[in-house]
């Protein structure tokens, strides 16, 4: 029921909750829901157009165009764009029900149409155009405008637009005018509008990121674009006066594109997903063109099949690009979109996939392209942190924090790295800065808990962890932090309970499994501890700390040779692991064997056999 970034879209998140229950977290289920919503929208489009044109063939063509056009790929394959597919479904339902009400066939259809408007607005604020589209329908079908039955739609739109306005005031979404002046801004809007028309007619060279290098400048392109739009607008106005179907479709396209056309400047200038709702107007124009075709019926049908087949082929070719982040941003780079957003996206996807070298290279390119963007330094810091290059990570996070647009996340990333480096005073300052930027940020309390724990201030640490748990009860990490604090003050039963809650929240948390195993080993519950550690190895066989902990448990159970193997495996994975080296040396001494090269300390304190990592 709250705001999500700059949107108020609770229905979208309810659909995700339903997916979570229905599909049990399986990603293909979320995608399937998007596909089903898209297919259901196609059925509604068919019935809308059959009512408008009185032809099943034309209605089928319009629905098929909406379904297979390559511009739809982004909205359907990207689960995050559920708001597009869900909003369109209710938007189309509202239009169809209103048409039935207009025809006088279903007296009950008016109320459900208004309800569909509410549901569409709960899915995406772009649905605010619905009452205006209904006025266009009045004019096109009746030759007059009926305002009397539109006031519920307008009231709904005003309420939800106000809610979304509040959400957008909390986040920097709306930008200054492109180019800083009205003429430059108008030229940009005209260029974007023609860009969408061109992509709709010739959907090739599609990209996840479109680069407008001279955006905001009037220039020759802007002037020609403005003149073209003026000409199209005049022709559309004349066609609307004559109640021509093509003009109605063009006007509907313009109207539905309005919220994302940069009339009110937005951060992303153009994107394929912005055409999902306006595709209704494009389908009207295409249907009108099909109906106006002359010649044998077979010829018209052949043209229809050829056109839809070509679009379907382009769509099938486009879908694999959205397989993962790396394929998506690599495709954008191949198409010349050399922007910091693309480099950052590629770096982030590579880091997530474990290709740290590529992630570092992409992040460096992003820094070179825009040395002032805080997000780039934060990403580069995350890359260095993954490589355990903590001083370099701290330098990047410091640079990110210096940006005027730095968020609480950048400050907290710096704080966590500084804690690893032992610079707790500076880390505390970074946490305090994060809290000034976002007083309710749950990770700030998590960081405070870690800091106080490191200082031995257990009561304050426990209080901070409890605040973090209260703010994000579904997150495993605050529960694990609280478990550490409770264990330190010897409240072992409560600590175990918190560890188990954390594992309920995230059953695949290797950190949680290790922490609970260490706690159980401390209570000499070695069999349970060993079981948890072997489960952790099944999840991540490359984590050296798990081998150290398992070696400690096996040593406690007097299975010394197995324990030796665990320590040596940990050292093969991480030769700098001092506790593994020290524990191996102690174990060999216990077994009466001389220390070998693996057991030779290389500096730093280790842990004795029986300790935990």
Characterize the structure shown:
It is elongated and about 100 Å long. The model is unreliable at 603-612 (pLDDT under 50). The chain is built from 29 helices and no strands. Helix 14 (325-334) runs antiparallel to helix 15. Among the domains are: 10-321, no CATH class; 508-613, Tetratricopeptide repeat domain (Serine Threonine Protein Phosphatase 5, Tetratricopeptide repeat, Alpha Horseshoe). The protein is an all-alpha fold and 613 residues long. 70% of the residues lie in helices and 0% in strands.
Task: Jot down its keywords.
elongated, Serine Threonine Protein Phosphatase 5, Tetratricopeptide repeat, 0% strand, mainly alpha, 613 residues
Write the layout of secondary structure elements.
Layout: H1 10-23, H2 27-53, H3 56-68, H4 73-77, H5 82-103, H6 110-123, H7 130-142, H8 151-169, H9 182-201, H10 219-241, H11 245-257, H12 279-292, H13 297-318, H14 325-334, H15 340-352, H16 356-369, H17 374-386, H18 390-402, H19 408-420, H20 424-437, H21 442-455, H22 458-471, H23 476-488, H24 492-505, H25 510-522, H26 526-539, H27 544-556, H28 560-573, H29 578-590
Helix pairs in contact: 1-2, 2-3, 2-5, 3-12, 3-13, 5-6, 5-7, 6-8, 7-11, 9-10, 10-11, 11-12, 14-15, 15-16, 15-17, 16-17, 17-18, 18-19, 19-20, 19-21, 20-21, 21-22, 21-23, 22-23, 23-24, 24-25, 25-26, 25-27, 26-27, 27-28, 27-29, 28-29
